[in-house]
Automatic annotation (TrEMBL):
Keywords: Membrane, Transmembrane, Transmembrane helix. This is YoaR-like putative peptidoglycan binding domain-containing protein. It comes from Propioniciclava flava. Residues 93-191, 284-325 form the YoaR-like putative peptidoglycan binding domain. The keyword Glycoprotein does not apply. InterPro entries: Glycopeptide_resist_protein (IPR052913), Vancomycin_resist_VanW (IPR007391), YoaR-like_PG-bd (IPR022029). The chain crosses the membrane at residues 20-42. The lineage of its organism: Bacteria, Bacillati, Actinomycetota, Actinomycetes, Propionibacteriales.
Length: 587
């Protein structure tokens, strides 16, 4: 073991180098300790000479002086509105609304305005101070509330890629990623940027779609294109059915499930497209029971069983074969096919008596005769089974010229305007009243914004294909069969439309209480128009109306349902242009 001491060749002893070095280090340590102690001793009395907080010079000041100066200099800056941006969206809020505030005392303390053994503060004191940030506090709840509107505006859902057959050709729609505001990251950015910037960029989080464009293109190449490459031949006993690529395309859809696109062949669509050829092969489809009216009363049209291939079997055969590039041949067995809604099912519905009925009158203009007659014809014969909901818009469909509708009067923005399908509110109102007195559940209806005296006050329903429907639910244990007809009026005469509900009564009687009017309002001053196209109109008063639907059993009211509606006012319009062309629209 070597000794720290070693011999001198001249017989003397050499000085110990380690002792000298150790002494120097000890001296340095003592001096450092003295400096650290001195720095601690003076810390907190005044801030180091070169100290600044958030750009405010506070060097050499006592903590109290520094806090006062900091407060004075930062008060205006700390109240300036901040614009927070997220992609192409932004919101501007005050720091207080964002929950941001400066803790002046803590800011001074963190910059050396208090005694501390923290080496960073000691070092700062020894080196003369430095630029320090202010201590910013945040109210998490306030910040989240202030950012909620921006979060909603900046949010976009991811869009899955889609694969669809359009005009017989498979087409891919590209996917796109979604985004959402990173609220926690935005609050952190606000804390860091507060006092240095009045515009803060908030971070966004990306959301990937479940189905990517690449996945859709793979389904296109492996499923859609082979499926539409040619016909599928199906052997049915000793007969053959060729299902064309066009027929396959009309029934083929792709649904997103479990992160992939799954091909689905719609059995009903496929069978309908193949019906003519199946008939030629001697196949017969089952026919469900239905209802007709004979001598004004419902009559069951019996169901008929068929013999052939079921829709599900046909779809399964096509699905299993359509992706093959060769040998696109398969087989199915024909057999008896039962009707899904039998004569017995129809007879059990209890459609035996009128449970609700209503008739309204209308001026027989050309468009009303057409549109009311057409809509009544569509309502006539509709069967609503127990638990089902009827939708007038779903029944009538889009009102277009191609579908046989005519343009007529409608209300838009408090004015009578021309609209395709005008006048069908007459049928809608009559239907609503019929189901009202049948005691059926009112799911949704909306009266007109203006009052027309030919309708029951408040007890009426308008219709708009885009935004306003009339729906009711069959909330009974019996079937509901609708009967509707007009008196086939001549143009210029007086028309009527009647709707009856056939079912089994659940109550002895349904009545409506007398309407009670209140909150009358006068229209504004008359409007004079010199427009080239102008329809004069009379002023109409606005008011509120309340009434009840009363359900009777045993001569007593056992249930009451309140209804209320408020009608708008209508300003009078006077046409001053002598050459003005009238719209000739009647209400």
């Amino acid at each position: 073991m070597a000794d720290s001491m070693s011999a001198d060749p001249r017989g003397g002893r050499r000085p110990r180098r380690g002792l000298v070095v150790g002494g120097v280090l000890a001296t340095v340590a003592v001096l450092a300790g003295v400096s650290y102690g001195v720095a601690y001793a003076v810390s907190g009395n005044t801030l180091a000479p070169k100290t600044s907080i958030a750009g405010v010079d506070v060097g050499g000041l006592t903590p109290a002086e520094a806090q006062a100066k900091l407060t004075a200099d930062l008060t205006q800056r700390s109240s300036e509105p901040i614009t927070v941006t997220a992609a192409d969206q932004s919101t501007t809020r005050t720091p207080a609304e964002l929950g941001l505030a400066v803790d002046y005392a803590a800011s001074v303390q963190a910059a050396g305005g208090a005694k501390s053994f923290d080496p960073r503060i000691i070092w700062d004191n020894l080196t003369g101070g430095s630029a320090r940030p202010a201590v910013v506090t945040v109210d998490q709840g306030a910040a989240e509330a202030a950012l909620s509107e921006l979060a909603t505006a900046a949010h976009t859902d991811p869009v899955n890629a889609e694969l669809a057959v359009v005009d017989g050709k498979p087409t891919v729609s590209n996917a796109s990623a979604g985004r959402s505001l990173d609220v926690a990251g935005a609050i952190t950015a606000l804390q860091h940027g507060f006092l240095t910037s009045t515009r803060i960029e908030a971070p966004l989080s990306a959301a990937d779609p479940d189905i990517t464009t690449e996945e859709a293109n793979e389904a296109l190449a492996t499923v859609a294109q082979p499926a539409l490459s040619g016909p599928v031949t199906i052997s049915i006993g000793d007969k053959t059915l060729d299902v064309s690529a066009q027929t396959i395309g009309s029934a083929l859809t792709f649904q997103a499930a479990d992160g992939k696109l799954t091909p689905q062949v719609n059995p009903t669509t496929l069978l309908k497209a193949s019906e003519e050829r199946l008939d030629q092969l001697g196949m017969t489809e089952p026919k469900d029971a239905s209802f007709t009216f004979a001598d004004g009363r419902p009559k069951v049209v019996p169901s008929q069983d068929g013999n052939g291939v079921s829709a599900d079997a046909l779809a399964a055969a096509v699905t299993s074969t359509m992706t093959k590039t060769t040998d696109r041949v398969t087989s199915v067995e024909a057999g008896p096919l039962k009707a899904s809604f039998t004569t017995e099912d129809a007879e059990k519905l209890g459609i035996k008596e009128v449970t609700g009925e209503f008739t309204t009158n209308f001026p027989a203009t050309a468009y009303r005769v057409n549109n009311i007659g057409k809509s009544a014809g569509l309502v006539n014969g509709v069967l609503v089974k127990p638990g089902e909901t009827f939708s007038m818009n779903k029944l009538l469909g889009p009102r277009t010229l191609a579908q046989g509708w005519m343009a007529g009067g409608a209300i838009d923005g408090g004015k009578v305007v021309e609209r395709m399908g005008g006048g069908i509110s007459q049928t809608t109102t009559t239907t609503f009243n019929a189901i009202f007195f049948a005691g059926l559940q009112d799911v949704y209806h909306k009266p007109h914004s203006l009052y027309f005296s030919r309708y029951p006050m408040g007890r009426e329903a308008t219709l708009d294909y885009v935004s306003v429907d009339m729906k009711f639910k069959n909330n009974t244990d019996y079937g509901v069969l609708m009967q509707a007809y007009t008196n086939n009026p001549k143009v210029g005469g007086q028309g009527t439309v009647t709707v009856k509900v056939w079912s089994t009564k659940s109550y002895d009687e349904i009545k409506a209480s007398d309407p009670v009017q209140s909150d009358f309002r006068s229209p504004g001053p008359a409007v004079q128009s010199d427009a080239a196209v102008c329809s004069p109109q009379s002023a109409m008063q606005g008011f509120r109306v309340d009434y009840n639907r009363l359900f009777y059993k045993g001569g007593q009211v056992v249930k009451t349902e309140p209804f209320t509606w408020t009608y708008n006012t209508l300003q009078a319009v006077t046409c001053t242009n002598p050459d003005a062309r009238a719209d000739r629209i009647e209400r």
